[in-house]
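Reader question, answered in our methods column.
A reader sent in the components of a multi-part assembly and asked whether the whole thing could be modeled at once rather than chain by chain. We filled in our standard form and ran it. Here is what they sent:
COMPLEX SIZE: two components
ENTRIES:
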Amino acid sequence: MDDKSMLAIAREEAILGRDEGGVPIGAALFTADGELLGRGHNRRVQDDDPSMHAETAAFRAAGRRPHYRDTVMVTTLSPCWYCSGLVRQFGIGRVVIGEAETFHGGHDWLAEHGVAISVLGDPACVALMREFIAARPELWFEDIGKD
Amino acid sequence: MDDKSMLAIAREEAILGRDEGGVPIGAALFTADGELLGRGHNRRVQDDDPSMHAETAAFRAAGRRPHYRDTVMVTTLSPCWYCSGLVRQFGIGRVVIGEAETFHGGHDWLAEHGVAISVLGDPACVALMREFIAARPELWFEDIGKD
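And here is the structure of the entire assembly that came back:
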């Protein structure tokens, strides 16, 4: 499965989150061969749970694994420090990012620490975030701990 | 409430986790004035959930908040990159750490980024981890993504 096809699944998750009234960020964890291990989206609003960012939701959905070095985290948005820390701690080998225009998280730091990073610059992902930030700025700032 | 009293609550959580057969790491989130906001422990084994480290469990239990700058994360063990990323992203102002002998996570990095760090060197926290790592090394390595 190529990067765009993997991103399409993360974007489906983001759209599910938007349609539920939540933060429209989605993610999915794959093997390097493109097998889907887990997918999910931000659930701050839906579950009243500030710990469920999209990447943590996908990681959780993938279940327990002995290691992650052959896995790829695909996310619609540049991962925040929380989710970048997840990638570094668990040794996820590669991160595919829909866009890093509306938010620039920790992906440069991950690259410095040997994680392969691909930023796709996907216009649909940018549009999802631009619409969300314009409509719900207070929810967005809450989600990234800015006030 | 002083640091030792706050740590005692995190240590109670770690012991609960040990007695459930899980990874014996506990945490609690307080206000700067010592009001308990949330407490929890690692739930990898109990919930089959690799995303529930002690700090994320305490953060989740505290619920949604507009900001965290006046909060203190208290944890029995130096926070891994995942949990250090949580602290940095959400702007938690201070971290109190039971011990950093059996595992050295991201607390130096947090200090470089302005987070107040206190390492208490608590012998009971050290003993909990030493016993656990000796008894269940494979579970410990899984929990920190090492193999």
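What stands out: The domain at 3-144 of chain A is CATH 3.40.140.10 (Cytidine Deaminase; domain 2). The longest helix of chain A spans residues 3-19.
Send us your own complexes using the same form.
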